[in-house]
Write a structure and sequence with these properties.
The chain has 24 helices and 23 strands. By secondary structure, the protein is of the alpha+beta class. It has four domains: 125 residues, NTF2-like, domain 1 (Nuclear Transport Factor 2, Chain: A), CATH 3.10.450.100; 97 residues, Penicillin-binding protein 2a (Domain 2); 83 residues, Penicillin-binding protein 2a, domain 3 (Ribosomal Protein L30, Chain: A), CATH 3.30.1390.30; 317 residues, 3-Layer(aba) Sandwich (Beta-lactamase). The strands form seven sheets. Strands 6, 7, 8, 9 and 14 form a five-stranded mixed beta sheet that branches. Helix 13 packs antiparallel against helix 24 and helix 16 runs antiparallel to helix 23. Keywords: Membrane, Signal. This is Penicillin-binding protein. GO terms for molecular function: penicillin binding; peptidoglycan L,D-transpeptidase activity. It is found in: Membrane.
Length: 669
């Protein structure tokens, strides 16, 4: 075959091959286009699929960049575009447009958007490529969107939920405070700028930056800081500076201040780390978030959900905006506590700023009525943004006001003795009427104890020592001997029945009560120490109040609750002590106040019963250490609540009777 014939044959083959290749149908092109749309490939959609008329009408900026920006700004995701299939025998005419009904679904920050449209493909040639191309306009972004329109998003702020006590007294509420600001034309003394900055805990550079904002006019009020209503001294001093004033503004308030500070916690500006974690939940850099206490624990219940609206803004004067999607604002939940804020305040004030903690519980329901850590701090101060100097001052305060003591664990000292008695009586090893002959200040079982001896505070207690005298004189030797008679297994099992070695079923994180670091009792010496609340025994103040419930209500310890929407009277432990044995222990605790060493609690107006305790924190084996003083008490005739209180460092203040005096003040109020 010659070269000429070969060339003709090759051309013929190419012609036949091209004729055999079927041109893409409008539906084929639509499927590809929708695939790119669902994947958000706007650049490919523009360059490879739009018809020339659309490209002439809309630039890449108007098609590609605008849609990419809208997806980011409006939180558009989960885009699902589908179409209604044409009849199988449809004959496509290249001279006629191909119309397809399409369905568009997407999620946005303001909720779901769904619409239907007719999408048209036209047959034309682009850059020597013949085929079907999409005709597009802005209504394929949102219906009723036209060239020249703007898409806007507006936010309606949801109110943060409030925290209230059982009587609807506000604990964390949406109240008011003040914006402190400058009127530039009246602020003429530059030397006052540094004074103002020091008062507000800000810098002079920050003041300059606020005054340099583009909107500022000489006669305008320019906010530079916020102040709570409680900061009266700051308000008074700033008002004395010419050109400085304050105006009312909405603000989170903590009406009970220090008294409830560790429980309420506070909100503060969201940190970069928190924003990164919470961005998916709709938080922004300008939001406030719970930073400590219940404000943090209840963040998801309190926050609420801001209202969002996406709308089309028409350029024509007087044209009504068109809503695309709208999510109404949902205010945060109001959370009601079992706490009695007035009882909490009374208890806090009774403690006179001494380092310590208190808890009060209702023995008939398990509801928490007070949960105090003293000293506290001003949550309003933290909510507004505390200065570095002020924070350092609080951190260096020897009373440690930033430490939440009601969640911590402490050796309960002799306040555990009524529980030790209950365990022994129920085990049948302790006869409350049987007296023991105890002589001297110290005692040991035998020489196998080596140097270890048990010491009691009142060797003058008259023999024989029965349970009542042992409680009145708080006799360590008596309770150690009873624990030895029980044996370590019986005693440890009994303590576990009272909730030791078990996480408390409570809504707020608490130190787990422990018998020892290992959860067991390893020696007779440790058994003896544990019987009077020393050794390695630790408990939190709420648990200490709760373990007196069975002694008051004949055997039942309720699950402690903090929120009023929790079911109360849920039995946590039952059958801990018989009614007969509980009555005997109650009489002994009444005698502790009347005849014993809680004289400060012996009120004429309120017949208190309870038990004192002192836990020594030894600096070393041979040195005297600081002492934590305890008192657990209730009204013996009307036990509406049991209160447990601990005060640190009572060794120079009369020991545990010092604490009994504080508790007595609560009952007198």
């Amino acid at each position: 075959m010659n070269k000429r014939l070969l060339g003709v044959f090759s051309l013929l083959c190419l012609f036949l091959l091209g004729a055999c290749q079927q041109q893409a149908t409008p539906e084929d092109r639509l499927k590809e286009y929708i695939g790119q749309w669902n994947d958000g490939n706007f650049a490919e959609m523009y360059s490879a699929y739009l018809n020339q008329g659309t490209k002439d009408a809309y630039s890449t900026e108007e098609f590609v960049e605008r849609q990419e920006k809208l997806q980011a700004d409006l939180g558009i995701e989960n885009v699902e575009v589908s179409y209604t299939k044409p009849a199988e025998d449809t004959d496509w005419d290249t001279e006629q447009p191909a119309d397809f009904p399409i369905q568009v679904k997407m999620e946005t920050l303001a909720g779901p958007v769904e619409f239907e449209k007719t999408l048209t493909l036209l047959h034309e040639t682009q850059e020597e490529e013949e085929g079907w191309f999409v005709e597009w306009d802005p209504s394929f972004i949102f219906p009723q969107l036209e060239a020249g329109d703007n898409i806007r998003i507006s936010r309606t702020e949801a109110a943060r939920g409030e925290i209230v006590d059982r009587n609807n007294n506000g604990i964390a509420v949406n109240g008011s405070g003040f914006d402190i600001g400058i009127v530039p034309e009246s602020f003429t003394d530059e030397s006052k700028k540094e004074e103002l900055a020091d008062l507000l805990g800000i810098t002079t550079d920050f003041i300059d930056k606020q005054l340099a904002q583009s909107w500022v006019q000489p006669h305008y009020f320019v906010p530079i800081a916020k102040a709570a209503k409680t900061e009266k001294e700051v308000l008074e001093k700033t008002d004395e500076i010419p050109g400085v004033a304050h105006q009312g503004t909405d603000m989170r308030e903590y009406p009970y201040g220090q008294a409830l500070s560790h429980l309420s916690g506070y909100i503060g500006a969201i940190t970069a780390e928190q924003l990164e974690e919470r961005k998916a939940d709709g938080y922004t850099a300008n939001d406030f978030i719970g930073r400590q206490g219940l404000e943090a624990l209840l963040e998801d219940r309190l926050r609420g959900r801001d209202g969002l609206k996406i709308y089309i803004e028409k350029p024509a004067e007087g044209a009504e905006p068109i809503t695309v999607a709208e999510q109404p604002a949902v205010d945060g939940e109001t959370v009601k506590l079992t706490i009695d804020a007035e009882l909490q305040k009374t208890t806090y004030e009774a403690m006179e700023g001494e380092p310590g903690t208190s808890a009060a519980v209702d023995p008939k329901t398990g509801q928490t009525l007070a949960l105090v850590s003293s000293p506290g701090f001003d949550p309003n101060e933290f909510m507004l943004g505390i200065s570095g100097d002020r924070y350092k001052e609080l951190q260096e305060d020897p009373r440690n006001p930033m430490f939440n003591r009601f969640t911590a664990g402490y050796a309960p000292g002799s306040t555990i003795k009524p529980v030790t008695a209950a365990i022994g009586m129920e085990a049948g090893t302790l006869d409350p009427s049987e007296g023991l002959e105890i002589n001297g200040k110290t005692w040991q079982k035998d020489e196998s104890w080596g140097d270890y001896r048990i010491t009691r505070l009142h060797p003058e207690a008259p023999n024989p020592i029965d349970l009542n005298k042992a409680l009145v004189y708080s006799d360590n030797i008596y309770f150690a001997r009873q624990a030895l008679d029980m044996g370590k297994d019986t005693f440890a099992d009994g303590l576990k029945q009272f909730g030791f070695e078990e996480e408390m079923p409570y809504s707020y994180g608490m130190k787990k009560p422990q018998i020892s670091n290992e959860g067991t009792i390893g020696s007779e010496g440790q058994l003896s120490d544990t019987s009077f609340g020393q050794g390695q025994m630790l408990t939190n103040i709420l648990h200490l109040a709760s373990i007196y419930e069975p002694l008051v209500n004949d055997g039942t310890m309720y699950k402690p609750t903090l929120f009023l929407d929790e079911e109360d009277k849920q039995v946590w432990k039952d059958g801990l002590v018989s009614a007969e044995n509980a009555k005997i222990i109650r009489q002994g605790m009444r005698n502790v106040v009347v005849d014993g060493y809680a004289k400060s609690a012996n009120l004429k107006s309120v017949p208190l019963a309870g038990k004192t305790g002192t836990a020594e924190l030894k600096a070393s084996k041979d040195e005297e250490g600081a002492q934590n003083g305890f008192f657990v008490a209730y009204n013996s005739e009307n036990p509406e609540f049991i209160i447990a209180m601990m005060i640190e460092g009572v060794e120079d203040n009369g020991g545990s009777d010092y604490v009994a005096g504080f508790v007595a003040k609560v009952f007198k109020e």
